[in-house]
Amino acid sequence: MIWNTNYQKLAASTLFTLFFAGKTYAPKCIVNGIHVQDYLQQHYYRCFEKVAQVIHENGLENTCVIGYDTMNEPGHGYLSIPDLTKLNQEDTDFKMGLMPTAYQGMLLGSGIATEVENWEFKWNGPKKSGHVVIDPGKVMAWFTPDEQEEANATFGWKRDPGWTPGCIWALHGVWDKSARKILLPNYFATDPNTGNLTDYSPYWIDYIEKYAASLRTIHHDAILFVQPPVLACPPKIPTSLKRIVYAPHWYDGLTLVKKKWCSYNVDFINLNRGKYGTGPLRFLRALRVGEKAIRQCFVDQLSTIKREGLENVGDYPCIFGEIGIPYDLEADSSSSSSIWGWFSSFFMSVSNKAHMGEPNSAQNKAMDASINALEKNILNYSLWNYTPDNSPQWGDLWNGEDLSIWQSSGTNNLSSIATHSTSSSATVAAIEMDSKFMASTDSFKQLISGENVRDILSLHRPHPQVTSGTPLKIDFVPPTESTCASFEYVLKQDTRCEGPTEIYVPSCHFPCPPQVEVSTGTWKVNVVNDTYWILLWWMDEEEVEEAKLNLKGISFVQH
């Protein structure tokens, strides 16, 4: 399964369509006297109400839990597809692997062998490599009459007589299964009731408003972390919806797909938003070559996403709910300074055997470029992800992904840990642990034993924890063999703030006693331990527009 393209496949597209707009596009799907759209949404709301209730009963509101995400990376389903027999014609659309059209997906889901396009991701983007015949062997994604009867009895479902077994899109006249013919290729392009062009936004906003109202019957002042579809510009959020945070996700798509830190990249967000005009030359305009240009490209993309949030969501905080890098990167090709090295990097990997923990490693460069873009835009973020049982063989233990910032140098085999655990007799499956095992301190210590082999330099960054004013600039330069680490923090002082600015400082780059310079006020080291220390910075009483603090650290030393 390829995460990006799975949105376009039958199962995901059907479920997102039913969840957000089922009453419009699948009116015959009625179960237990209500439409399946309401059935799905009501169950979703009640699940989170239950979570909120337990949090409320245990006194965790606004301490451990301040709010709730709206939905992780929602999809559009089939909404607005202009022609079900064609793939998205936008040349910025991601295509990789087997790419059935929406109609071909319906054929395959009904057990009908179908020839589909196969795509590869080349240095210059997705390219069609040919066609592949997929034969499901008459296996269907839909219930047979007997299976539907069994499921109804098991789950207490009573379907409307009009909801007969088989493909629901054939049931609604989109295609004819017996003739194997598309009947309404533009079915999802317009509202079948009004004829107006389909717009996903009202369906999504309606869901958001109901979700917020449901949660806030229990957690009255819960913050809503609003997340639109991935890389999409958010729609205008009604001003009646308060206490929200804009929570988009962003990854460097080229590195994520190619699993290689390249010497070129593309300003994809701004290309997608039309910044570079029309025609094939716009790809050349969006191309960025070299480390400096790539880093600025990331800054520009996150700046656009931040601005769109302010314009459409409102004057609310923004946190990037997911950002990170794949650690299973191929050999680094970006370090070659020769013209041939740069040119050849478009077609092949140029070996660079830098260890992951060294300044020149692909992982360190990729992570630093992403976090630098966040810092340059003064953005909040959470890294995806921390997987304590990440392993060299299986990565994050999900879908072949390997983005965990942690991998133990000790054993990562869960079965091995379970066998040797003396405080739990639970069996450990490949991706599931018994709760007793997880509660075992000894087992957990063994799980995370050893050093973190992914302890890359750019993860250790100074950052303000408390600011007596408004942050204006964050600039961290990680150390290399020839350059010392440095950190600059600029803020606009606010004399109404009480107490000092507090800055977390990693000892590995900035050991004590520190080298600190401030443009105003005084500072002192407050807390010191093995891995970090806290710097306190007091401002002078007279308010200043720009107060600056600079730290100078040490260079990288190979151990």
Largest sheet: 4 strands, antiparallel
Mean pLDDT: 89
Shape: globular
In the sheet with the most strands, the strands line up as 15-18-21-20
Q: Keyphrases for this structure?
A:
16 helices; 559 residues; alpha+beta; four-stranded antiparallel sheet; single chain
Give the SSE layout.
Blueprint: H1 3-6, H2 10-25, E1 30-31, E2 34-35, H3 36-57, E3 67-69, E4 97-99, H4 102-109, E5 114-122, E6 125-134, H5 145-155, H6 168-171, E7 175-176, E8 181-182, H7 200-215, E9 223-226, E10 244-246, H8 253-258, E11 264-266, H9 268-272, H10 281-286, E12 287-289, H11 291-313, E13 319-323, H12 339-344, H13 362-376, E14 380-383, H14 414-420, H15 435-439, H16 441-447, E15 463-466, E16 469-477, E17 486-493, E18 501-506, E19 515-518, E20 522-528, E21 532-538, E22 547-552
Parallel strand pairs: 3-9, 9-10, 13-14
Antiparallel strand pairs: 1-2, 4-5, 5-6, 7-8, 11-12, 15-18, 16-17, 17-22, 18-21, 19-22, 20-21
